[in-house]
């Protein structure tokens, strides 16, 4: 998806107003979920409630992918300006990456299929790196949104979802769910038998 220099087709005023309201509603939901995601990832990186780190990240990634799917489903967003407005230097995300890598030590790395449509090539990835990549894309959109550039924020969120963070979030989600499944299901036989016995007695 690229920006178009073509002027949008002029529609009737009521239709334009309705479309603008719909886009603003989408932007509000993406902004809300972006802030929630960033808050959770930051808290996990800070070491808050380490025993719940995997479930918390699973919930955060699931929620942000929900609004991402909505971004992918709507028509291409075309901002009024041809070039992206300057919102200053990119934030330094290395401290967050290091913090997450420390919290996820031992489970951070995972194997990923590069493109399941085109082939079976596998590469190495990290949860910490992918989570920070998602955070960076969401932050960039929020910087536009907080300056009142709603269409610009939507264009960035939509473009980066389709080109980068949607794929990263999908990979992270599957890996987190797999980790959680291992943590819950990979137990000793005697522990599993005892749990099954307890369940049957209820």
Word description of this protein:
The chain has 202 residues and is mainly alpha-helical. Helix content is 66%, strand content 5%. The protein has 6 helices and 2 strands, in the order αααββααα. The protein has helices at 13-45, 53-73, 94-103, 127-146, 150-185, 189-201; strands at residues 109-113, 122-126. Strands 1-2 form a two-stranded antiparallel sheet. β1 and β2 (122-126) form a beta hairpin. α1 packs across α3 (94-103). It is globular, with a radius of gyration of 20 Å. It starts with 12 loop residues before the first helix and ends with a helix.
Short key terms for the protein model shown above:
6 helices, 202 residues, globular, mainly alpha, two-stranded antiparallel ribbon
Topology:
Elements (H helix, E strand, L loop, with lengths): L12 H33 L7 H21 L20 H10 L5 E5 L8 E5 H20 L3 H36 L3 H13 L1
Antiparallel strand pairs: 1-2
Helix pairs in contact: 1-2, 1-3, 1-4, 1-5, 2-5, 3-4, 4-5
Q: Shape from CA axes?
A: globular
Beta strand count: 2
How much strand?
under 5%
Secondary-structure element order, N to C: HHHEEHHH
Total number of helices: 6
The order of strands across the largest sheet is 1-2
Q: Give Rg in angstroms.
A: 20 Å
Q: Let me know the largest β-sheet.
A: 2 strands, antiparallel
Q: Compute the separation of the termini in Å.
A: 56 Å
Supply the helix-strand structural class.
mainly alpha
Taking pLDDT < 50 over at least 5 consecutive residues as the criterion, the unreliable ranges are 4-13
**Averaged pLDDT:** 84
Helix content: 55-70%
